[in-house]
Amino acid sequence: MKLPETVSTPRAPAPTGPFAQARRAGNLLFISGQRGIDPATGKPAGPSVEARARQAMENLKAIAEAAGGSMESFVSTAVYVTDMKAHRPAINKLYEEYFGPHLPARTLVEVSALSQDDIVEIEAVVLLPGE
């Protein structure tokens, strides 16, 4: 049995706590929740959910690509937002843009708070090419 390995890339923000950007176990990649943080500045991509969710998607994409995956290989995501009514339309639009016909399974949950008072966070499971 091969032990899980850590996957990281400078194209996504460094973790802000004791966790990895992602862990690969066999052909599955488990990506930690990505917020709308620009890896170049370490700051939120903008004030709007559109800007932050777009950056979160770019971060997810960068991590998946670093492990050999693509947007087409996303299996499942969990999206956390602080205002379902206000943020769901923007999330839906970005999912159609980023995933096209290859939509992953998704859970969208409203939460009372996110790290550093953020408004959106997305975690994912990606199927990677076989070894």
Instruction: Give me the number of helical elements.
Output: 2
What is the H-and-E element order?
Answer: EEEEEHEHEE
Instruction: Tell me the span between the first and last alpha carbons.
Output: 13 Å
Which architecture does the CATH hierarchy give at level 2?
A: 2-Layer Sandwich
* Spatial order of strands in the largest sheet: 1-2-3-8-6-7
Which percent bin holds the helix content? 25-40%
Low-confidence parts, pLDDT < 50 over ≥5 residues? none
Write up this protein.
It is a single chain. By secondary structure, the protein is an alpha+beta fold. It has one domain (5-127): 60s Ribosomal Protein L30, Chain: A (2-Layer Sandwich), CATH 3.30.1330. 26% of the residues lie in helices and 31% in strands. The protein contains two helices and eight strands. It has helices at residues 49-66, 84-99; strands at residues 5-7, 22-25, 28-35, 37-38, 43-44, 74-81, 105-110, 120-127. The strands form two sheets. It has a six-stranded mixed beta sheet with strand order 1-2-3-8-6-7, with helices on one face. The chain has a two-stranded antiparallel ribbon with strand order 4-5. Helix 1 crosses helix 2 (84-99). The two termini are 13 Å apart. 29% of the residues are buried. The mean pLDDT is 96.
